[in-house]
Amino acid sequence: MTDHVVVVGGGTGGTVLANDLAERLEPELAAGDVRVTIVTDDPDHVYKPVWLYVPFGQREPADGRRPLTELVDDRVDVRIDRVTGIDTDAQRLESRDGVAPSEYDYLALATGSTLAPDEIPGLAEGGHDFYSESGSETLREELLSFTEGHLVLSVVGTPHMCPAAPLEFVFMADDWFRKRGLREDVDITYTYPIQRVHGNPHIAEWARPRMDDRDIAVETFFNAESVDPDGQTMATMEGDELDYDLLVAIPPHRGIDLIEEAGLGDRGWVDVDKETLEAEAAENVYALGDTADTGVPNAGSVAHYQAGVVGQRLASELRGRPATATYDGKTLCFIETGMDAASFVEFDYEHPPSPAPPSQKIHWAKLAYNESYWLTARGLL
Amino acid sequence: MTETNLDATATVDARGAACPGPLMDLIGKIRDVESGDVVRLLSDNEQSLTDVREWTEEAGNDLLEVEEADDHYEFYVEKA
Question: Key word Transferase present in the record (chain B) (predicted)?
Fold first, then answer.
């Protein structure tokens, strides 16, 4: 009998996991004892961190796209299809085109985040984002010709992808306008939902004085309730209003509806054991990356490390051994602090982050990693 | 055990979530409910005792009651 592992999602988590399994289970795959299939509805793998640089005219969205088949090991079966239903009792899948497998023995869900700007009236019309290819391109049109006025970066939805990116954006915008001699004509305001500038108190404590020094205005306890695109005003749940000339928002995020319909968790996030990454509501189902509701940042590094854990656990289970690998919350992020300086943080469930002093070397390291990311996707780095 | 007689329209179970997860979760749920509805937040994070109170005051919502259970707190917040 052949055990079938089905990975749903072709982002960082799904791709790294599929390649990890191909390597780890080489003997079983060669003998036909195990099959590994990855299902995704996008034939390309997309590396989202590229989008941060697009509005500043530094990168193109195409820099973040490569065909998935170029990245995934040949021993993995790649199916381009969209999974539309999961029956976790029968261990069966439904799909849009019938190309995806209809059954699984083990399922790994790495379906990721989607943007839901429509949850805030007026946001889709009045705001821009750099959390999508089209958003980053449209924002580029606005930002490159923006020479005066009020630029507002508003974190509307949490959790959101790459929690450091909103801070990076305002630090980069500040530096970018200064270098072009326009900073005195551009006001920058950063808004955040809770009483500090970042969810993690250590990162917030590090960032806040830097924002003050650089004249980046801050509004906390700021939760957008609606946006008036004509009046260019945001109204908040707290009863405040804020005028803007250019609004860059981090929209609300959701997982995909499939997760909730399968009874695995709310808003598309799978309820999991934070250490084993096993779904709490079903047997033989794992979730990783943004999809796994662990409370750690929705970041590529998290998906990468979790893929290694899920790969080890699946290999143990397939070999009839106790699965002992656990995820310790490890997260790693570069944080751009300007156009040519960056910081770096590394933390886990037990150890809080302590941002490194910003330097040009760390900035170069971030750019170098962005290039070598493709080795990560292929399971080599 | 808790002793409150308040009826909650919705419950957010944020036990196990690290700071600021519980407050973020509460804000998200308050968005979804109607004015006058009561949201019950379950949190085992001590920081919630100050976070939730500060935010409800800022947003003009009413923190009706905070109950201390065996291993968590229960916050009852009425949306203004």
Answer: yes
CATH number, domain containing residue B52:
3.30.110.40
Domain span including residue B54:
10-78
> Nearest-CA neighbor of B14 among B52, B60, B54, B57?
B52
ipTM: 0.88
What is the domain count for chain B? 1
Number of A to B CB contacts under 8 A, please give it. Answer: 40
Could you tell me the maximum CA-CA distance found in chain A, to the nearest angstrom? 70
In chain B, what residues touch A199 (CB-CB under 8 Å)?
Answer: 20, 24
Smallest CA–CA distance, residue A8 to chain B, in Å, is: 26
Reported as a single tens digit per residue, the pLDDT across A256-312 is 999 999 999 989 999 999 999 999 999 999 999 999 999 889 999 999 999 999 999
C-beta atoms of A193 and B27 within 8 A = yes
Instruction: For chain A, list the domains and their CATH numbers.
Output: 3-113+255-318 (3.50.50.60), 117-252 (3.50.50.60)
Tokens of A35: 């099959």
Kindly report, residue by residue over A105-145, the tens digit of the pLDDT.
999 999 999 999 999 999 999 999 999 999 999 999 999 99
Task: Show the tokens assigned to A57.
Answer: 């005219």
Q: Is B59 in contact with A119 (Cβ distance < 8 A)?
A: no
pLDDT tens-digit readout, A215-248: 999 999 999 999 999 999 999 999 999 999 999 9
